[in-house]
């Protein structure tokens, strides 16, 4: 059964994670994703462990359900070939900053001239119209600029990057929603358009959902920063034999938790009776919560809290996540046989659809694996293809 985006063609002219992960998700939903790579390939092809050159773990994580074509966009022939591919595409995604895009002749106006109905999505660090618009950016830069790194200060005493590329992946989800919204608009009106997805603005909006807080109001009613989240005691709590996430949240949760814990005095304490009073006393509340959790084993707490319907779970490691019983029961981790890379583990498509489920149809492509195939589909003659191969404008594996 075809996915919800069957029949949609995506030109993925992006590298690293922000664009490629979004394009992979579009491919998971049935789109025909053509990954356009420079002759040296996406940088992630060399990042992490690999069985063969150019097929490293990082690349494998973001590039299933794609075909790979090599085009050297610094060659006039490569640029013209990309524009020819754009004639029949529905979406083109790239992560060139505005100035390099213009130098390559791949700004929106140039692409719109060959396909007015195209959804053109540019992804980069900062909105082009602002004073930072010319700056390069990677995940660490955006974590710092957006305030995300500074959120660690109450916990560590200094700014720290989160140990995951959260800025890239958050922005990638923004790319996904933006492209789908533009495709919906085109389906209704026939109009293509240009989309800009800047990482800085995307992550700043993400951070400030809860942390705008008192600065929501003008003049401010209180400082920025959601106090429950910034509390130094908010962490997985040590039990007698491990760590647990224990998260009573509603009034009912806390009342039940104190009953289960054998602390009726806390249940009656006016500091802890309502959402408002708990927030005002959040540091002492979480400090006491940690002390209580330390008095039993993880299994004892999990059994008691599950029966009481109070949210709690173990703290998985990266390794134990691969053996998580829930993920095992739902078939989340897929074991696949790649034609060149052997046996691989890959996560499932998280979403489910009753009518148009996504599918892992293609495993990760070798660099230039589909160059000739894609060029032929676009109407290039064998002579044109041979000339491009000879000039180094394209390559095939």
Main features:
alpha/beta; three-stranded antiparallel sheet; 19 helices; 13% strand; six-stranded parallel sheet; 397 residues
On the 0 to 100 scale, the average pLDDT is 96
N to C succession of SSEs: EHEHEHEHHEHHHEHHEEHHHHHEHHEEHH
**Helicity, as a percent range:** 40-55%
Percent of residues in beta strands:
5-15%
Give a description of the structure.
This protein has about 400 residues and is an alpha/beta fold. The protein has helices at about 20-30, 55-60, 75-85, 100-105, 110-115, 140-145, 155, 165-190, 200-210, 225-230, 250-260, 265-270, 275-280, 280-295, 300-310, 320, 325-330, 370-375, 380-390, and strands at about 10-15, 30-35, 65-70, 90-95, 120-125, 195-200, 235-240, 245, 310-315, 335-340, 340-345. The strands form 3 sheets. A 6-stranded parallel beta sheet has the order 3-2-1-4-5-6, with helices on both faces. Helix 1 (about 20-30) links the parallel strand 1 and strand 2 (about 30-35). Helix 1 crosses helix 8 (about 165-190) and helix 8 packs across helix 9. The longest helix is centred in the middle third of the chain and has 24 residues, at about 165-190.
Chain-wise SSE layout:
Elements: E1 9-13, H1 18-28, E2 32-37, H2 57-62, E3 66-70, H3 76-86, E4 91-94, H4 98-103, H5 108-114, E5 119-124, H6 139-145, H7 153-156, H8 166-189, E6 193-198, H9 199-211, H10 227-230, E7 237-238, E8 243-246, H11 251-260, H12 264-268, H13 275-280, H14 282-293, H15 298-308, E9 312-314, H16 318-321, H17 325-329, E10 333-338, E11 342-347, H18 371-377, H19 382-391
Parallel strand pairs: 1-2, 1-4, 2-3, 4-5, 5-6
Antiparallel strand pairs: 7-8, 8-9, 10-11
Helix pairs in contact: 1-8, 8-9
């Amino acid at each position: 059964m075809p996915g919800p985006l069957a029949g949609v063609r995506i030109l993925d002219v992006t590298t690293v994670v922000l664009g490629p992960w979004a394009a992979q998700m579009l491919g998971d939903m049935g789109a025909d994703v053509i990954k356009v790579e420079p002759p040296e390939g996406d940088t992630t092809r060399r990042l992490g462990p690999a069985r063969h050159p150019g097929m490293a773990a990082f690349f494998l994580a973001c590039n299933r359900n794609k075909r790979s074509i090599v085009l050297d966009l610094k060659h006039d022939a490569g640029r013209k070939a990309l524009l020819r591919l754009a004639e029949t595409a529905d979406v083109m995604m790239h992560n060139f900053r505005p100035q390099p895009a213009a130098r390559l002749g791949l700004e929106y106006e140039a692409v719109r001239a060959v396909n007015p109905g195209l959804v053109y999505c540019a992804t980069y660090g900062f909105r082009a119209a602002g004073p930072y618009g010319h700056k390069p950016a990677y995940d660490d830069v955006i974590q710092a600029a957006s305030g995300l790194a500074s959120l660690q200060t109450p916990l560590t005493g200094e700014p720290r990057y989160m140990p995951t590329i959260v800025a890239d992946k958050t922005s990638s989800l923004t790319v996904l929603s933006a492209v789908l919204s533009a495709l919906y608009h085109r389906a209704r009106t026939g109009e293509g358009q240009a989309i800009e997805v800047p990482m800085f603005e995307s992550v700043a909006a993400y951070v400030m959902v809860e942390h705008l807080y008192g600065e929501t109001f003008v003049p401010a009613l209180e400082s920025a920063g959601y106090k429950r989240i910034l509390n130094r005691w908010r962490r997985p709590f040590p039990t007698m034999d491990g760590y647990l996430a224990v998260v009573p949240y509603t009034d009912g949760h806390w009342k039940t938790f104190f009953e289960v814990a054998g602390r009726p005095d806390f249940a009656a304490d006016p500091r802890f009776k309502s959402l408002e009073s708990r927030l005002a006393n959040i540091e002492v509340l979480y400090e006491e919560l940690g002390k209580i959790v330390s008095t039993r084993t993880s299994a004892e707490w999990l059994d008691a809290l599950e029966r009481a319907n109070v949210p709690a779970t173990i703290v998985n490691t990266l390794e134990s996540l691969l053996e998580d019983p829930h993920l095992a029961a739902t078939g989340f981790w897929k074991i696949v046989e790649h034609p060149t890379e052997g046996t691989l583990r890959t996560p499932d498509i998280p979403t489910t659809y009753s009518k148009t489920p996504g599918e892992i149809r293609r495993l990760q492509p070798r660099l230039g694996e589909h160059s000739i195939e894609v060029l032929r589909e676009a109407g290039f003659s064998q002579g044109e293809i041979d000339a491009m191969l000879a000039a180094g404008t394209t390559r095939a594996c």
